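seq:
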Amino acid sequence: MEEDPPGLVPWMIVRTHDYSVEQGKHHLHWQKGMFLDHRSHGQAMFEKRAREFHVYTQGLA
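struct:
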């Protein structure tokens, strides 16, 4: 990305909160990323690093 899109990760956290991974009483998201889990479809991790946005996914068969 040439410019940092303001509010991208916080917006994604809000939009995908129902799928955020819970550990104890906390959801696993941070200022620049998050872990997501959809039990019947798979998991994903999104993370913004400097000027790059990384997406890691694992689907369930």
